[in-house]
Amino acid sequence: MPVPARLGVFRVLCLFAVFEAVCLLDTGMLFPRESSSREVKELNGRWDFRADKSPNRNQGFEKAWYKSRLAETGPVIDMPVPASYNDITQDPTLRDFIGWVWYEREVVVPARWIADEGTRVVLRVGSAHYYSVVWVNGVKVTEHNGGHLPFEAEIGSLIRKDPTQPCRITIAVNNTLTLDTLPPGNIQHMDDHTKYPDGFFVQNIYFDFFNYAGIHRSVLLYTTPKAYVDDITVVTDFLDNTVNLKSSFFTTLKATLMDKNGRCVASSSEPSGVLKVVDVNLWWPYLMHENPAYLYSMEVRLMATDSRSTYEDVYTLPVGIRTVNVTSTQFLINNKPFYFHGVNKHEDSDIRGKGFDWPLIVKDFNLLKWLGANSFRTSHYPYAEEILQMCDRHGIVVIDECPGVGIKDIRSFGNSSLTHHLAVMDELVRRDKNHASVVMWSVANEPAAEMPPADFYFKTLIKHTKALDPSRPVTFITDSNYARDRGAPYVDVICVNSYFSWYHDPGHLEVIPIQLKTQFENWYGKYQKPIIQSEYGADAVAGFHSDPPVMFSEEYQKAVLQSYHNVLDQKRKQYVIGELIWNFADFMTVQGITRVVGNKKGIFTRERQPKAAAFILKERYWRLANETGRLPVWTKYPCSF
Ligand code: BDP
């Protein structure tokens, strides 16, 4: 008799009862890892692809393209996964396509997975932008609302139905944004035939990055036994030299915490509880300690038996032990003041768009370390899990932002938008809660928070996020318009973006010292909360030079940074707790009269070559690290990166 599904799922109970009360999700979303009980099979590479260019974009559903091979219902082209589809071909209509696109791939499933009924086979999509529907051999297995976050379906019973058939996976993805999606957008039809061709429409968006689409992260199959570890929640704390590593799990689990050398430092066979570690190695940020980013491994081993079999599942989670606290003037990591000197990023590069790419990721981490950056914000959406794992490994501190960017229309503050926003926070916290590098949640970027409904919206959203995870502070990012402060009473840290001498008083560098000082004093005066300068910067087209500096030259970008730094140096002695440059690298945007082949505020080009501003920032960040941290011995030679 097979194990009944409910008994088969050993959901690790969350530490905080309130989590259960507010979280609507009923399964975990552990990152797929191989272990003695789990196998992973990546399905990346070449997929068949077709964009549904029919006038209503709905032919694929009307003609049920998922029922047979995609190549049987029309022409297909090659499409790499993971990648955005926009920049892969020479077809301008695909670059700017809006609507459903169809991906398909046949997979050979190991015979053993099929033969062994005690094996769960799970199909997982790391992220697809934006709305996805998934079929296996023509049967719908799941759909998911939202980009940037993973979703899964168990497909074992389907592939066992007819083991002689190959496993055909079809994924339809739609990038249409509505007033209720995150980010929001809307479709505008132009019916004036004296101006526009028949059927012409555009998608209006209120954010400043190209709305890349497609399957952006890995698609994979993984297995677990029928009884399996579904979720783990680890919260760390310490007192003197003792650590309380709290976690909760089903009674038949055993948790073992191992140090870097594989030595067991604590274990427990209780369903939930405290693992005490003596002589703990804390997780410290990069440049704050001589031995940063120390990670333990927590092995969770589950044993279960039914009338026929015994199941054993093993999942190993990297665990960094650290605390985070906020006072009215400081951000504390392990009870020591932490100053964010870092960047804002985008998942963005030539050809692959927002597609996951290991070489790019490793290069970016090398550049971050070269720069002396100790942190970044995942502007303006959750980044790939592998990026957060790199942050854990290298001690790069993260402000983890949800895709709440461009909430500018009053209709996007309604109930259905809020419900979706809460669900996205549930998914984000569920995915990222165990990363030591993640120290704060950001619920939105520059919303139109001056609008009256914003008060209820952000109060609900921020309260909900704090209840999901009481161990981390919450922020939302505001702009320099001081009227947009609804929401600010509920956050722990105020994050402000400002572009003095750029969008305001363009060309007038002399306004920066006055306006920036006023900005800080206004916000601190009203809320007495620590402040991060969460964005500042200026566009510079690499290779444009001008002295005296003029806008878009490398010299102007440098001068803006230096003026900001003078004020930041005064205010960081009081309550300013960080500065994040906009942006790490140039990135693609929608076409428009203020963008010349994308946003050029990068201190690196899109190809990751430094502009003059990168050297200014590098000099500053290493100086700040010297003042505020304890540099590892090897960092005496930063040039070796
Ligand atoms: C900020 C936005 C960011 C933009 C930046 C800019 O948060 O997304 O890219 O302005 O205009 O306000 O460069």
From TrEMBL:
Q: Where is the signal peptide?
A: 1-21
Whether Acetylation counts among this entry's keywords is no
Location within or outside the cell: Lysosome
Coiled-coil residues are: none
This protein's major location comes to other
Q: Any idea where the Glycosyl hydrolases family 2 sugar binding domain is?
A: 41-225
Q: Which is one Gene Ontology cellular component term of this protein?
A: lysosome
- Ranges of residues in domain Glycoside hydrolase family 2 catalytic: 324-625
- What Enzyme Commission number(s) appear in the record? 3.2.1.31
> Which PROSITE patterns is this protein grouped with?
GLYCOSYL_HYDROL_F2_1, GLYCOSYL_HYDROL_F2_2
Q: Which GO terms describe its molecular function?
A: beta-glucuronidase activity; carbohydrate binding
Q: What are the protein's UniProt keywords?
A: Glycoprotein, Glycosidase, Hydrolase, Lysosome, Signal
Its BP terms in the Gene Ontology are: carbohydrate metabolic process; glucuronoside catabolic process
Q: Which domain of life is it from?
A: Eukaryota
What SUPFAM superfamilies does this protein map onto? Answer: (Trans)glycosidases, beta-Galactosidase/glucuronidase domain, Galactose-binding domain-like
**Homology family:** Belongs to the glycosyl hydrolase 2 family.
Query: What interactions and quaternary structure are annotated?
Result: Homotetramer.
Q: What does this protein do?
A: Plays an important role in the degradation of dermatan and keratan sulfates.
Q: What is this protein called?
A: Beta-glucuronidase
Species of provenance? Sander lucioperca
